[in-house]
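In response to a reviewer's request, we include the raw inputs and outputs for one of the modeled complexes. The two entities were modeled together in a single run.
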Amino acid sequence: MSGPTRVGVEVGGTFTDLVAFEADGVRITKVPSTPQEPHRGAIAALDESGLALEGTGDLVHGSTVATNAVLERKGARVAFFATEGFRDLLTLQRQSRRSIYDIHYQKPEPVVPRRDTFEVPERIGPEGEVVAALDDAAARQRVARALQGAGYESVAICLLNSYANPAHERRMAALVAERFPGTGITCSSDVTREFREYERASTTALAAYVQPVIDRYLGEFGRALDDRGFEGRFSLMQSNGGRLPASGMAGNAITALYSGPAAGVMGAIRQAGCSGHRDLITFDMGGTSTDVCLVQDGTPVLTSDAEIDGLPIRIPVLDIVTVGAGGGSIVWRDDGGMMRVGPRSAGADPGPACYRRGGAEPTITDAHLVRGSVLADTFLGGRMDVDPALAREAFAALATHFERSVEQVADDAIRVAEHNIVRAIQLVSTERGRDPRDYVLVPFGGAGPLHAARVAEVLGISTIVVPPAAGVLSAFGLVASDFVRYESRTVRIAIDEAGAAERVRAQFAAMRQDADSAFAALGLASGLRYTHTLEMRYVGQAFEVPVALEADEIAGLDTGLLRERFNEAHHRIFEFDDSRTNRPEIVSFRLGIASPPPAVPRLADTDAAPHAADVTIFDGGARLPARRINRSALLEAGEGDGPLLIADETSTAYVPPGWRARMDAHNNVILTH
Amino acid sequence: MALDRVDQAIISQALVAAAKEMGIKLVRSAYSPIVREANDCSAALLDADGNVVSQAELIPMQLGPIGTTFRPCAELHPPETLEPGDFYINNDPYHGGQHVPDVFIFTPIFFRARLVGFSATVAHHLDLGGGAPGLNMAAGDVHQEGLIFPPSRYNVNRDWNGGPLERLVRANVRVPEKTIGDCNAQFAANGVGARRVTELCEKFGADAVTEAMAALLDYSEQRMRAAIAAAPDGVYHGEDQLDGDGVNDEPLVVRARVEIAGDSVSIDYAGTCDQVRTNVNCPFASTIAAGLSCIKSVLTSPDIPFNEGSKRPISITAPMGSMLNPRPPAPVRARMLSAYRAYNAVMKALAEAVPERVMAAGFDSTHATCLSHLGEGGYGIYLEIFGGGYGASALGDGCDAVDSPLSNCSNIPIEAIDMEHRFFRVVEYALVPGSGGGGEQRGGLGIRRVYEVLADDVEYQSYSDRFTIPPEGLFGGEDGGAASVCVLRGNERIALGSKTSFRLAKGDLVVMSTGGGAGYGEAGRRSPERAARDRDDGALAAP
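The model returned the following structure tokens for the whole complex.
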């Protein structure tokens, strides 16, 4: 590949990964993360890789810094303004409990405490009409009293019904800026234009809470890049699966929450796409958890229903379901005698029992060592020293209790973990009306390829694509991702009212104009693509079903097509439609704009010498003689039958009996049965 | 053949997941705000004999006795006579139901012509006719509380989709598009549950699924028994009281005798007052739910799947003709109130047995507010359920502003109310500073709501409690704050009772406050840091 070097740097919980595409090949670097000062880990990865940043044209970064700021409640000090009478929105939340029999229940802690919440007299009505005007003089006074000398870094403004008319929020923002220039200001109508005040207030408070954190972080990271002579484009990953130039994150920091899992999905889409697969279920299994996402026709499914630490976020993010099943997940027996795996994890410290760091409880990683599906000498490319005897010891008590051999109990634990993953996949497929058998499974992360075949068997999936360098696919995904931005508007239109189709066209056209100018301001204008989604429901319902329209369908749109598409989408999810007695309406519009990166690089294997050995794996109640090979050996042989282990630097794939593995022309290992 | 232990674990988890999915889909496809926003509904899977195997964790009150609601249907129309498309329906408080608005629908699940179980949903319907829109506080008997579906069998194709039952319901309710829409959402959610169970049968075989269902009941029973056995044996007593029945201010006393013996518990409500003429009587199915929920919450870990098996170690009795086991046709709409006192009485008894695991009394009431108006476009009916402050416990402060323990309704977003109704507007929604009883651990805060009435002839109906008798502090903690409602009309302040109706006029302000929870332990022992935080966050009453 030619052109300037392109680099992805992904800061994870345990490791910071770097993937660099240079003229002469791919360079992979892994260094420990530095959770206290995350930018240092990222800089360390750059330094350790030995890359010349002067020649780097494109640097994409994914970081947990926003997520951690929320989880550890280390974000900015925020003043929150609400409509008079409603300052307690963030504490009242939705009144319900998540655990119904827990008498010691506590609500998720808001990021803004009650003492930092304020009110302003005004009221907008549900159609956007002004019920009580915002009195400038009164508002000025409230702003001054709240903020004067109080040292807030950031102000969040969420007024009732502002999704229908943002005028009062805009005016408040102007009043704050006039009196306290330099203070960060976040209006709910700029973050999400959807009804339900608590969810919108929570999103706004979170946005105001992480913005200064991201601003500071990007400042520090940017300076370090300048010091190293970097003159290329620096962009940041978002939770919607696209990236934005760093300059575009001003006012958009909340889109950086959960960007890590999104990067992996984008890497999987790109890599599986090379082999011609566009309908995917991706499955990223790491040390503590597994992230699952469904990809339809090359596009990941989005949701506006996400939350962080129990606090709702109403911006479009990849619909990723996370279960507590990772290599470090603990295997235990509950007081009803049932075997359970996770969600508790041994983490990196003490880690699995085999790590020799004092961990005594058995984990999934230990189970693999006992079973023989992971071998001590190739663990993490041989970089990690593990003790199989400690792994066996950790399972001894469970084996005694269940009256089974240690191998059998380890094998059972892996089956239970695999079914936890199966349920996560069912959540994003069957529960959304999608049949998993129509999809290809793409496992990655350190542990994904070990479990993929058995998970696929349960779900009836017949093809698996294991990408090269599966352990660092997220860093690759950063470089492979498009620039993306979403616009959304709540505009209710009953589809059988006169001129409905015309209004839909006009609305999308206006949003497209806004999106174009936002992108133009960031210097993005080439190869623009758009996605059009209507959030629809039957009149009287409260939750919407997304209906995607192709760009070329918009011109010929009519009531009939809208009705047909909605009934179909409703039926797919709920297994019924109310078309007999009810009529659909549009509630909101979402337009996505995307610009592709320069030519997408391809992942290749490192050129290790072919290697093969005989091993024994305990699987399905029997001891199976198997072969362990590396990817170079598979490439040489072309294909191989299970039972087979295919190990590389960053992960191991398990090919059970009945499955066949082959290396295709795009460096993907394809498993079929 | 004995079921493989791992298969059992896998099928069990899948059954729990399927019930949860039913609940989510019911909420998301429903029409009335009481279901779609407030989530006043539940879902469960039953085995072929009608034992609840798994449930979506939505409303404890609706979930405990689903089997009790099922059985009268099965006695009349034995399950083996059911055909595809058939369903049972029941909301009869005197034949296993709870209160009239909670309509239970059971759909049989067939796998290759074999009955393998039932999927069940219950939703609180916004209006089922009766003497007033949404809520009739004046009802003198159950017949004035709405349309009763006695335990019966119908067929969805023949009787519902445009058929005679659907037309009968449509003709007898005030907001048919919501009632019919919510019923359709129930049928659809039942369909989803049925589909998941048949998928499991395809994968593992019907025998394995049936066996796993039975094993899941045994599993929950075993875990419940282990937890109960860990509590000290003995006979314990507790009592609590309602402010009154809405007509008389005479407190209504509920008494519980709780006996823990080995791995079982028995609760007897002997000594509880006689049934009353207003709607605070509690059908026996609801009394059972209250006792079960308290035992489960206090003695066991929250992750034990709640099903018929977890009920086996617990027996509950209440004298016939008492407020907790009334004779027909006594009205029962506000049965949650007496059910809460049944819950509190058991909690107080358990405070003697396991003081470190109980919580002090909280607001522990359902505060139901119903506003209705007949406008040009038909009836507008608004119904919302409020909780208040939780009682404090040895582990921490009571939760602020949360629905009470036997229920779990969400609030209805102000913006959803604004979209739906033009005859009133919410102008304040806030915490009530100072309403949490002081203590080493303080009680949770209550909720304040102010409604501005925008039309004449708006009907207000409401039931609540703890207006005059506040929740009692535990181990030296202070009592929680009382609840109240008043109407501000010009310069006039009209105090309303806890169980009442009132005709509102344009310009009126209805000001309601729900109660806080009581404290646990002496206030002098509260740490200075936490006291300072209470002060800074305005949790205390203004000085």
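As requested, we also summarize the result in words. The first strand of chain A starts at residue 5 and ends at 11. Chain A has 17 helices and 35 strands.
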